[in-house]
Amino acid sequence: MLPLIEQEVLLRHWMTIDEFTNMITISSMLPGSVGINAATFIGYQIAGIYGALVATFGMILPSLLLILLLEHFFKRFQESQVIVAAFYGLRPVIIGLIFYSAIRFTTSLQLLTTINWESICFLGIFLLTLILLRKKKIHPIMIICISGICGAVFFR
Amino acid sequence: MLAMIEYEVVEKYKWMKKQDMTDILAISQSVPGAVAINLAIMIGYRLAGLLGALIALLGIVLPTIFIVILMSVLFLSFHHHPIVNAIFKGIGASVVALIVYAGFAMRKTAIIDIPTLMLTIFSILVLIFSSINPIWVILFGLIIGILIGKLKILSNISEEEESVENMKQEKKHYL
Q: What is the complex's ipTM, to 2 decimals?
């Protein structure tokens, strides 16, 4: 979802890449889905409260319509070979998009252009987080608090 | 979040049986969008029709909207402060890790054979080296999936190679 939002936002000059990166950071800190939070955030920046409401609704509307449709055709949907096959192809592409947004996010932080104190700290926090997530199953909110403190200490 | 919703719906208010809840959960997970929101919409719809769906949607979305708006206001007034910036850089590093981890978590259900592996690598490369709109990559995956599905039916590949979901459905048929 994020690469899609990024392309639209940058194309329309609603935000700079720096603003967008910070916005994604905040969106992922908050409860709920990152994509929807990002939409609310962008909507608010562009057009205030109404912008936030409209953007959020716009983000949810497709799923809302799809679900209401599916409710009527529930049985057929579950057994449909075409849908199963479509998801077979869709999932790997979604993983591609996820890794791509990780790469985009890293480049937009502009910390990894040269080897220096900041880029080493960045890699350190990144690896530590990944290990904590995989081995210890720590809650993401805890991770974000810890890394925020690390950031305040190392990046000053 | 999901466990909380399930508890409220099945145990506390007894709006639904556990089996129905499992079915609904399966659909909410396969429809694009946030699972919790999809789930709320479906439960609302089952219990009270279109109005129920809309109210359930509002109920689950409004708290986050308020929090996000509050954070935007705070962020817009503080984001030039050096310490705030340093904190954001630190969190940025872990956000990248969170994104990568989400990708890892998905790989077991998504990358199940060689075509899906190729598709993953291909889509990452295309996204990095071209400025193509990501929607085309998604559509491409969709079409390739359907084509491979058709090929599989034609050449009658055994069930072992089908996706986990297929297997679940096959089990249902045998029962």
A: 0.74
Task: Quote the tokens at residue A98.
Answer: 């996820």
pLDDT at B54 over 70: yes
A11 in contact with B at a CB cutoff of 8 Å?
no
A62-88 tens-digit pLDDT = 888 888 887 777 656 556 777 778 878
Is the pTM for the entire model greater than 0.80? no
Q: How far apart are CA A136 and CA A33, in angstroms?
A: 22
Question: Is the model's pLDDT at B161 over the cut of 60?
Answer: no
| Interchain pair B93, A90: CB under 8 A | no
How would you class B52 by CB atoms within 10 Å of its CB: exposed for 0-12, middle for 13-18, buried for 19 or more?
A: middle
* Amino acid sitting at position A120: I
Asked which of A69-78, A134-143, B25-34, B92-101 is least confident by mean pLDDT, the reply is A69-78
Largest CA-CA distance found in chain B, in angstroms, rounded: 63
Contacting residues of A for B163, CB less than 8 Å apart: 84, 87-88
User: Is the backbone of residue A32 left (phi > 0), alpha (psi -120 to 50) or beta?
Assistant: left
Helix, strand, or coil (residue A9): helix
B28: Cβ contacts below 8 Å, ≥ 6 apart: A67, B35, B38, B39, B42
Q: Which of B69, B83, B94 is opposite residue A52, by nearest beta carbon?
A: B69
Other CB atoms closer than 10 Å to residue B29's CB: what's the count?
11
Q: In angstroms, how far is CA B77 from the centroid of its own chain? A: 33
Residue type, B43: I
